Amino acid sequence: MSRNPQITNPSLWLAGANPDSFQIMDWRNWAWVVVLGMVIAGCADNDALSGEQPNVLNSTQPAETADIPAAPTTAPETNQSTFGPVPVSPEGPLDAGLESDLDALFDSLPRADLEAIDRIGASGDPRAAWLLTDIIRFTGGEIGKRTGDAWESLTAVSIPAGESPWGFTTDHMIAWDVPAPPGYINWKRQVFELVEPRWAPLFDDPNATVDWRWVSWGGVLIDDRPVGQTNVGCPQGCIPALNDPALTPAAEGSWYPDGSIVFGVVVGGEAVAFPKNIMEIHEMVNITIGGRRLGMPYCTLCGSAQAYFTDDVAPGIDLDGHDSYELRTSGLLSRSNKVMFEFHTMSVIDTFTGEAESGPLREASVVLAQTSVRTSTWGDWRAAHPDTRIVAEDGGIGRSYPSDPLRGRDDDGPIFPIGDVDPRLEVQAPVVGVIADDGTPVAFPVAVIEPLTADGASVTLGGVTVTSDGAGFTATSATTGHALAAHQAFWFAWSQFHTDTLLFQA
């Protein structure tokens, strides 16, 4: 595949004046600033969504810079009524002509063979529509229009005026669960590697269990900085992991307001509080607590902070002289959930489950063990854990953090395509998610269980008991009493990655 040499270094044209950019493109509330067809990957305010797509691939110039309803305890059948009839896809290999046209289209990028796009739209095989949505993600102008027209021809669904073509088409494809075309990843990686060549290792495993249909671009690039340089900025435009941040005693944490959110972790008797505003910038922390090494992803889009033990290394895994895994943010998303990876092996790991989905860690069947992350306020956490430490105001790296970096970006629902949503709760309703001893996922709506556990009482469902000490929720096995890993997340995120989840109701 030929590449335009002028865009092989995306940092020259991918927007983000802040070298430590945490910003994510928002398909529902675009804040595009387009210069000569270029797109800024920005954190959008709640402005109206433009139906016009930027043309990333064809540019060579740099950019300027509620009440919880009563709910059954098991999931209903997926409701696809709002997305219309599911397109009927053929089985087996692609038609030879369609395969040839897909080759012609992807080999022609970034300029795009428009006639090949038209022929793909006339092929009658909706499986190819997945690849059209991948093209739509990065293009605008005539290329975007022709690709959108081709998608409409394959699916018999019209893209409404004023809608984001990529958001609309991808939401439908996910909800319909259209199968991927044979060879899908080989074409998809071509367009993604035009944007970020350093994603290539993430696509290399032919036996990966990643559902590549759901993988999209989050608007930033991969954090593959050398371990020793993780705290010196991220000039290439990634979401920068924070390694071993400086911690201060609670008495030195008066800079953080008592009513502001922290994510609290206790390991080996050692308690640490992670301020939400710092986590919103870095979205990943690698740290040692209580003698254990942890990797802590925070998916701002999912409202979910998690903590994985990374020092239990599988036999035979080469970590380049290191004795623990190193978790990073790829800049890719899967149904509005961050795609994280292990830096030394370039293995994709499911952020919600800790299961390795590609690379050497998949081959070794690695599933990272979790410990609880409790969402609390700084005042409540400090009262419950007076010996806690808190991440230093400057993170230990001499930078400043705004008090509200995202400015309500996620207040109105998911800002990236997620397809259909389990209707038992509002999409952004916070839930405490736990996996029971028998592997059953169980969700407890925060709005429901807060008043029920306020006086030291507990709630139980599916073999999981949840209590609160005023500083967040803890989960234990209802049969053995031992601790279970728990974390808080938006309902849409928990339910789409745990489709068979039980749901507590009062």
Write the layout of secondary structure elements.
Elements: H1 96-108, H2 114-121, H3 129-138, H4 141-155, H5 165-176, H6 184-195, E1 215-217, E2 242-243, E3 247-249, E4 261-267, E5 270-275, H7 276-282, E6 284-289, E7 292-299, E8 304-305, E9 307-309, E10 327-334, E11 337-342, E12 347-349, H8 359-363, E13 370-371, E14 374-377, H9 378-384, E15 389-391, E16 430-435, E17 441-445, H10 446-452, E18 459-461, E19 464-468, E20 473-477, E21 483-484, E22 486-490, H11 491-497, E23 502-503
Parallel strand pairs: 2-6, 5-15, 17-23
Antiparallel strand pairs: 1-10, 3-15, 4-5, 4-14, 6-7, 7-8, 7-9, 9-13, 10-11, 11-12, 16-17, 16-22, 18-19, 19-20, 20-21
Helix pairs in contact: 1-2, 1-6, 2-4, 3-4, 3-5, 3-6
